[in-house]
Amino acid sequence: MANEKPAVRTPATPDRPRRRDIVITALLGLLVLLVLLVGGVLAPGAWLAASLAFSALAFVYFLTAVTRVSPRSAVQMSRPVHASELESADVMLEKIAVPVLLIGPGGRIERANPAARAFLALGAEGGLLSNSLRQPRVLEAVSAALRGERGAVVEYASLAPIESHVRAFVEPLRMPVAGPMPWRAMLVLADETSSKRAERMRADFLANASHELRTPLASLSGFIDTLRGPARDDEAARDRFLSIMREQTDRMRRLIDDLLSLSRVEMNEHLPPSGEADLGAIARDVVDSLRPMADARAITLELSLPDEPARITGDRDQVYEVVENLVENAIKYSPEGAVVAIEALDNCARDVAEHAPERLAPQSARLLLAGPPFDPRQRYGVLRVRDHGAGIDRRYLPRLSERFYRVDGQKSGPTAGTGLGLAIVKHIITRHRGGFSVESAPDTGSTFSVFLPKPAEGSKAASPAQPVAAASAPEAEAE
C-alpha cells in the first residue's frame, strides 16, 4: 500500500471559448441599447432597466459556462482514476485478439496491440500507418477522425500477397492533452475473409459440381435407358455397360471428394499453419500406401530421404495430400515398368529448392507455379517427384494448376483424373507459404518440386505474419 500511486481526479473545467462568446454578445447588446438611447427610441429609464436586465442575464450565463458532459462521463470524471486501472486497460488491450491501433497526429501509429502488429506485420510502433496499410479509403477515414469528425466503417479487399477481406472501424477520440491537436483515431480491423470465402465456396461448388457432373450423369442416364430397352436381354452388353457405369460413378465420387478438398483448402488459405511435420516421414508413408497401385503396373518407387528428419512448418494431413497427389500422378502417367523417383531434402536455400541442379534434358522447360517472397535467410524442406512419362510441352505448363485443366491426351482413358489434383497442391502450398515448381520435357518426363519453410530457430513454428506471394503471371524459361 505504501507504493500505491495517488489517485488522480479530473475536475470539470470552464469552457473558455464559450465564456468569451458570452462577453462579446453582452457588449454588442449594450452597444445596441446605447444606440437606441441616442436615437431617441428608448427613454433613459427604459434604457437603464433594459441594460441592467441584459447585464445580469449575461453574468449568470458567464458563471455557468462549463464543458457539457454526459451523465455517464460526469460520473467517470468525479471518480478518482488510479494508475492500476490504467495498467489493467493496457493488459486488456494486449490480450484482445482483434487488431486495435491508436493513430496520432500525422497518421503515426502511437499504440498497437499484438494482434495488430501480427496482422499488419509491424516491426515497431511509431511508424506511419500509410507504410503498413495502403488503403486510401481507410487512410481518409483516419484523417477525418484526427480532425474530430464522426467515425466511419470501411470495407476493403486485398489480393496480394493473399486474398483477404477486412472491415475497418474508425472512431475519433478526444485526448486530455493541451495543444492544437487533441484528437486521436482508434482503428479496429475485423478480418472477414473466412465468411467471404465461405460464401464464394458455396457458389463455386454448386457451379463446378453442376458443370462437371453433367457429363457422367448423362452417360448413366443413357446406359440405364439402354439396359431397360434394347439391351434388356443382351448379357454381354449389360456387363460392358455396367462396367462403364461403375467407372462413371467412381469418377463422380472422386470429383466430389476433390471439390470438397479444394473448397476446404481455399477456405483457410489466408491462415498459415502453425504446427510442424517431418517431410521425409510423410513421403515414406505415402510410398507405403501407394505401393500396391505401383505394383499393379510394375512401376518401381525409389525413395531417397535425408539422414536427419526434414522438419517443416505445416499441417501434416495437408502436406500428406500434396505428396500423395504428386506421387499418384507420377504412377498414372508413367509407362508400365518405369521408375518413379521420390526425393526429400532438408535445409535447402531458395535457389536449390525451386529446381533440381541438373536438368532433365538440355531443352527442358522450368516454371515456378507458386512461390513466397525471396528471403535469403529462409531455409526449406524440399520434395521432388520425378516420372518418366510422355512429358508436358512448355505451352501447357502455366495452366497446370488451373481447375479442371488436363493436358491433351490425358482427358480420357483409365488414367484420366478430375483435373483438380494440382490445383489442390498449389493452394495447399500457398497456404503453407511455400513454393511449387515443375520441370518437363516431351518424351523425357516431368519433375514436380514443392518446398516448405522450416521452423524459425528458437520457436516451435514460423511466425503466422510472414507474407506470401503466389506467382500470378509465371513465364517458362529455357536455358
TrEMBL record:
Residues in Histidine kinase domain copies: 208-456
Enzyme Commission number(s) of this protein: 2.7.13.3
Comp. bias regions, Low complexity: 459-479
Pfam families in the record: HATPase_c, HisKA
Region of interest (Disordered), ranges: 452-479
Entry keyword set: ATP-binding, Kinase, Membrane, Nucleotide-binding, Phosphoprotein, Transferase, Transmembrane, Transmembrane helix, Two-component regulatory system
Keyword rRNA-binding: no
Coiled coil spans: none
Catalysed reactions, semicolon-separated: ATP + protein L-histidine = ADP + protein N-phospho-L-histidine
Stretch forming the signal peptide: none
Transmembrane stretches, start-end: 21-42, 48-69
GO molecular function ontology, one term from the record: kinase activity
PANTHER family from the UniProt entry: SENSOR HISTIDINE KINASE GLRK, TWO-COMPONENT HISTIDINE KINASE
The protein's name: histidine kinase
